[in-house]
């Protein structure tokens, strides 16, 4: 599955990062907390764009680890707004790794995690504010 296919199926590519050795435990696996933090960043990008302004995380509704992540992996986070409430937005984040990239120039693409995260839009006083319906306030 190409990046384009993954984007259409799982939302938009929001973040791509390579974990460093400092992000791993003694066994060489990337810490789950590191992966969760990156997923939160990826989800917040989609929420920020849809809310057209500042958002904060209010809930990690679910986070499922499907496969381990290693230092040599290139990690891609796809995000998609799946629900818009009055002040909140819920975003699905799907995480893939590209593994063994040096082999024949193309690596294996493996789904390693999925999350659902809720954000709240904030005004300039850091208080919840309404999120415009689709098409309203667009420039």
What does this structure look like?
There is one protein chain. By secondary structure, this protein is of the alpha+beta class. The protein has a single domain, classed as Roll (Thiol Ester Dehydrase, Chain A), CATH 3.10.129. Helices cover 20% and strands 39% of the residues. The chain is built from two helices and five strands; from the N terminus they run αβαββββ. It has a five-stranded antiparallel beta sheet with strand order 1-3-4-5-2, with helices on both faces. The radius of gyration is 16 Å and the shape is elongated. The N and C termini lie far apart (34 Å). The mean pLDDT is 90.
Number of helices: 2
The first-to-last residue Cα distance is: 34 Å
- Going by CATH, the homologous superfamily would be Hotdog Thioesterase
Low-confidence stretches at least 5 residues in length (pLDDT < 50)? none
Structural class: alpha+beta
Helical content stands at 10-25%
Spatial strand order of the main sheet: 1-3-4-5-2
State the oligomer: single chain
- Quick check: average pLDDT? 90
CATH topology: Thiol Ester Dehydrase, Chain A
Strand proportion, as a percent range, falls in: 35-45%
Number of strands: 5
How many discrete domains? 1
Going by CATH, the architecture would be: Roll
CATH class type:
Alpha Beta
Quick overview:
With 139 residues, the protein is of the alpha+beta class.
Primary descriptors:
139 residues; alpha+beta; Thiol Ester Dehydrase, Chain A; 5-stranded antiparallel sheet; 5 strands; elongated
Topology (elements, then pairings):
Layout (H helix, E strand, L loop, with lengths): L2 H8 L1 E6 L14 H20 L3 E11 L8 E11 L3 E12 L8 E14 L18
Antiparallel strand pairs: 1-3, 2-5, 3-4, 4-5
């Amino acid at each position: 599955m190409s990046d384009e296919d993954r984007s259409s199926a799982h939302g938009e590519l929001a973040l791509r990062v390579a974990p460093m050795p400092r992000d791993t435990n003694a066994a060489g696996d990337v810490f789950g907390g590191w992966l969760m933090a990156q997923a939160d960043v990826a989800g917040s990008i989609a929420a920020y764009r849809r809310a057209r302004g500042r958002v904060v995380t209010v809930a990690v509704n679910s986070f499922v680890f499907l496969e381990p992540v290693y230092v040599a992996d290139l990690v891609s986070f796809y995000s998609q707004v799946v629900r818009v409430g009055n002040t909140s937005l819920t975003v699905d984040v799907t995480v893939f790794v590209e593994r063994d990239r040096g082999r024949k120039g193309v690596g294996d693409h493996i789904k390693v995690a999925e999350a659902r995260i809720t954000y709240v839009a904030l005004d300039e006083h850091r208080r919840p504010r309404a999120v415009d319906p689709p098409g309203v306030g667009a420039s």
